[in-house]
Design a protein that fits this description.
Elements (H helix, E strand, L loop, with lengths): L1 E5 L3 E8 L14 E4 L7 H4 L4 E4 L7 H9 L3 E3 L4 H4 L5 E5 L5 E6 L20 E6 L5 H4 L7 E5 L1 H8 L3 H6 L6 H11 L4 H20 L4 E4 L5 H5 L21 H4 L5 H17 L5 E5 L5 H13 L11 E5 L2 H5 L1 H7 L2 E4 L1 H9 L17 H17 L3 E3 L3 H4 L1 H10 L3 E4 L4 H12 L5 H10 L4
Parallel strand pairs: 2-3, 3-4, 4-5, 8-9, 8-15, 9-10, 10-11, 11-12, 12-13, 13-14, 14-15
Antiparallel strand pairs: 1-5, 1-7, 2-6, 6-7
Helix pairs in contact: 5-8, 8-11, 14-16, 15-16, 16-20, 18-19
């Protein structure tokens, strides 16, 4: 059986086919999780399996992204994994044979090549990591790096809180009595708002402390409405959307009355990490900011919630992942202190496809010339504005040659999944030693963009 390989690891164990979330309780540590797809509800189980195989999805599907962060071998888009594999059979999941992953019968022997981390050369382009699980932070900090380019709080909210932020902010004024009682049981005697702020700040602080004093860029929440709705108490506060991927997500939520109370709790947690815990290496990044005016409103909202831009060195970045962020980069960068290119969403919106759709997954390609021109223009615009710009999407982790190309464009930093950081660092070092002048290459590429 074949599919798209995620990462480069190999895992072997007993297969466990899971048809729906109610069967997750049967999954044992060290098994191979077989499913059609996964979502944030599955993450506590995903972290303890030996490998994951899904029938649907592409390299930017939930299973792929989370597997990379957990360091678990994963094969996505097999089409028929849940039908061809049976619970109890031994299989080997191999992602070390190129972009195509293979599921083999039985537990096959394999060996692991080790690389001396001390031999990794220093690069002018900052090599940063993508980190989601706080419990892995101190372990991952041992990998040669210059900080964290993307720390997602979704993992912390899902695994360490599990309750919709607005449900806690509005507690006990909830219409859903079952959710009300379940939340009361979960938080015990603790103030509901303090429950959220404490747990979120502890998770963020663990990552920031592990990499201190290197910069750690934390993205504010970017769940889709269907994902928020699955959190305890969430159904009451979330609209039902036909396409949540381009709906009520990211920056548009933060100043909207439907989520502003929840965003206030996020800000309180971030402020606690910086101001009370002293981890001022923490920077904040705003995802999916659609308009310049929206950017201004979010920065104002943050100031009202204890995170004024510039105070105590606070920098606020924006995710550059919407074509408008590229076309109007000069205007957005007057508001934000820097950019980080989210190549996953930028690719889907440039090519007009849903990256969660298995039907069009074969068309998802960050190497498409239209996407490359978008990225080149964003880098050039940031250089002109004298603002830092990095990238935190999947592309550099999956395609080392893409990372090399980014170096020729003069990008400041590249954020990588931990399992590819050393290998890609070597490629970046080689690219930097070439005769290509980064700034000049960027200007040549942009001359053809016409944006």
């Amino acid at each position: 059986m074949v599919g798209q390989a995620v990462g480069e690891k190999i895992g072997a164990g007993r297969a466990r086919v899971v048809s729906d979330v109610s069967k997750l309780q049967n999954v044992q540590a060290g098994e191979i999780l077989i499913a059609q797809n996964t979502d944030p509800d599955w993450e506590p189980v995903m972290r303890r399996v030996a490998a994951i195989v899904t029938g649907q999805g592409g390299r930017t599907a939930h299973a792929a992204i989370v597997s990379r962060e957990f360091g678990i071998p994963c094969i996505v888009g097999t089409g028929n994994a849940t039908k061809l594999l049976s619970t109890g059979t031994d299989v080997t999941v191999c992602c070390s044979e190129g972009s195509e992953g293979h599921v083999y019968d039985g537990r096959l022997p394999y060996h692991v090549d080790h690389v001396d981390a001390g031999a990794v050369p220093k690069t002018q382009t900052k090599i940063m990591l993508i980190v989601g699980d706080p419990s892995q932070a101190f372990h991952l900090a041992a990998i040669p790096n210059q900080g964290v380019g993307l720390a997602r709080i979704e993992f912390i909210v899902t695994n360490h809180i599990g309750i919709h932020p607005t449900a806690l902010a509005q507690f006990p004024n909830l219409k859903d009595l079952k959710a009300l009682n379940d939340i009361r049981d979960k938080i015990a005697e603790e103030d509901p708002r303090e429950f959220f702020v404490r747990r979120l700040s502890e998770g963020i602080a663990q990552i920031a402390a592990a990499f201190y004093p290197k910069p750690v860029i934390v993205s504010t929440s970017d769940f889709k409405t269907n994902e928020y709705a699955r959190l305890l108490g969430g159904a009451e506060f979330e609209p039902k959307e036909e396409n949540p991927m381009i709906g009520f997500r990211g920056a548009s939520r933060y100043y909207d009355v439907r989520y502003a109370p929840g965003f206030a709790l996020e800000c309180a947690a971030l402020a606690r990490v910086r101001n009370k815990m002293g981890l001022t290496n923490l920077k904040v990044m705003i995802p999916f900011c659609r308009t310049v005016d929206e950017g201004k409103r979010v920065v104002e909202q943050m100031a009202q919630n204890g995170l004024p831009q510039g105070e105590n060195g606070l920098e606020i970045y924006a995710m550059c992942e919407i074509p408008a962020n590229v076309v109007l980069a000069d205007e957005f960068l007057k508001i934000f202190d820097g950019y980080s290119i989210g190549s996953n969403d930028l690719t889907q919106l440039t090519l007009g496809l849903d990256r969660d759709s298995a039907t069009v997954a074969h068309l998802f390609d960050e190497n498409n010339e239209a996407v490359r021109r978008m990225i080149a223009h964003a880098i050039s615009s940031a250089q002109k504005a004298n603002k830092p710009i990095g990238i935190c999407g999947q592309a550099p982790s999956d395609f080392p040659e893409f990372a090399e190309w980014l170096v020729t464009q003069g990008i400041d930093s590249i954020s990588l999944n931990p399992d590819t950081a050393i290998k890609t660092s070597l490629r970046v070092a080689t690219a930097e030693q070439s005769n290509i002048e980064p700034a000049a290459a960027g200007r040549v590429s942009n001359a053809a963009v016409g944006l």
